[in-house]
Design a protein that fits this description.
Shape: globular
Organism: Corynebacterium uterequi
Strand order of the largest sheet: 2-1-3-4-5
Number of domains: 1
GO molecular function: FMN binding
Protein name: Protein NrdI
Helix content: 25-40%
CATH architecture: 3-Layer(aba) Sandwich
Pfam families: Flavodoxin_NdrI
Distance between the termini: 13 Å
Function: Probably involved in ribonucleotide reductase function.
CATH superfamily: Flavodoxin domain
CATH class: Alpha Beta
């Protein structure tokens, strides 16, 4: 089961993904790092940017631009099977908003949201949930 993720320089998302223990691939931070192309179904883990958009309407771009670029590749987008998002509960109603946006645009389930780098309970819930539902989500690599 492949986990594709974007993690900024804070590394919160990377630390969460590392604790899951699944094979993973990181969406590059810098434009000069080249493009990530995936070749199997995956779950996307993505942080949410800019809290308070629902109130202020000043930052309506909760999905990091690097993730948008990755998903704008039709091949990559065709293999996404679910999304998980990180965020900060201080964002209020925008907590985990990136997951909502990606789920709606890519027509995949938004299966979980966690705060910052996630707790051990978050890791357990996500790991067990993905393993239990891998077939249903289509996360098993096809031969």
């Amino acid at each position: 089961m492949l986990v594709v993720y974007y993690s900024s320089a804070t590394e919160n998302t990377r630390r969460f993904v590392d604790k899951l223990g699944f094979p993973s691939a990181r969406i590059p931070i810098r434009r000069t790092d080249g493009e990530l192309i995936v070749d199997e179904p995956y779950v996307l883990v993505c942080p949410t940017y800019g809290g308070g958009a629902s109130i202020s309407h000043q930052n309506t771009r909760p999905v990091p631009p690097q993730v948008i670029k990755f998903l704008n590749n039709a091949h990559n987008r065709s293999l996404i099977r679910a999304v998980i998002s990180g965020g900060n509960t201080n964002f209020g109603t925008d907590f985990g908003k990136a997951g909502e946006v990606i789920s709606a645009k890519c027509h995949v389930p938004y299966v979980y949201r966690y705060e910052l780098l996630g707790t051990e309970e978050d890791v357990r819930i996500v790991r067990e949930g993905l393993l239990a539902n891998a077939d249903k989500l289509g996360l098993i690599k096809q031969p």
